[in-house]
Amino acid sequence: MLQNVLNTTYFHNKNHARIINFSAAKAVNDFDNKLGQIADEISKANNICLMAHKDPDCDAGASVLAVLDMIKKRHPGKQVDIYINGNMPKSLKKFEDVKKIIHLNNDKFDKEKIKEYDLAIALDSQRLDLLSESGAAIFNNAARTIKIDHHPKPNKGFANIELIDSTAKSTTQILIKLADKMNISIEKNLAKLLFSGIVSDSSGFSNLSTNSAKTFEACARLAKTGINTGEIYADVINHMTRPMFEYYRKILNNVHFTKDGRIVSIQESRDFLKNLPQKIKDDAVGRSKVLMEIGTTILLNIEGVKVSMRAMPTKDDIGAKIILRGNGIPVNRVAQYFNGGGHPIMAGCEIENKTIPNAVKKVINYIQTQKLLDKQV
Ligand SMILES: [Mn+2]
Questions:
Q1: Number of structural domains in the chain
Q2: 176 alpha carbon to ligand 1 midpoint, in Å?
Q3: Whether residues 165 and 79 fall in one domain
Q4: Which of 83, 152, 337, 367 matches a 20 to 30 Å C-alpha distance to 92?
């Protein structure tokens, strides 16, 4: 029956895709149309700027470098600038193009001198403000704007074309489809970048859920280019400096369980931070990586644990930043209550509370009073 309908509409309409009133097919078509529009916008633009969320993780950083690589391959003549607010992750520093990054500094930013781009592309950034103040100003000054992301779609959009696939584990996973649309054959350099993003955002394949087949298929394609997947994995996930190991040793003493053992938190309190060696204090990215590793690969896997939480002072030092991981518990509901957001299995929020233990208590209290531990994702 469906086949008949498709055939009939196909013969009567050139663009039969529009006629199919079948939501899954429509979603696939929408996605594919947007990929085509993005490839078009890129080919039309002469000056393009690429950006990612501030303090980029490996997925954000690799996405920007990957799109640059793709544009260089497909349209060698184009002028492409990259803007980043914060440091690129260590594992990406060996890529040649890292040298081309223009580092944004909000304090030294002159709004009068913003370059006008034909096209701005924001990668791995759920919201405009994540581009940082100066990044957002440059983005908004471009004639056309694109967002490519795998975080859930927020209520408000911020770009002319928004390509969002929240079933993708990383933004780099989505970029494989863009490469195909742009007729680019993925070779080693590009594959390394795309694979790095997937490894990083999946915490080394440890937080995959129902869409893992898609992720592994994407990885298989990248692995076929001959990249050394083990080496990239070690670079992205396992690499730890000696000072960071010392931090690891110390922070393990700040792990707290609730009485029933179902919620566990690791707390980087202000007092604890004060007494750290300067070298460790200065490496915020390294510390957050260690916290993530302990929070996800160790604490979340302890028998009986349903929610793992990591808490640290906010950047502006007025509150606590809380990142939640759920073991079958929809932690985004918790984060949303505190004006944060994220995925059911991983979410984050900021709480105005000077003491980290008190902020953690607030979150635990909410989880317990809402009886969220008995709900499943
Ligand atoms: Mn990402």
A1: 2
A2: 14
A3: yes
A4: 152
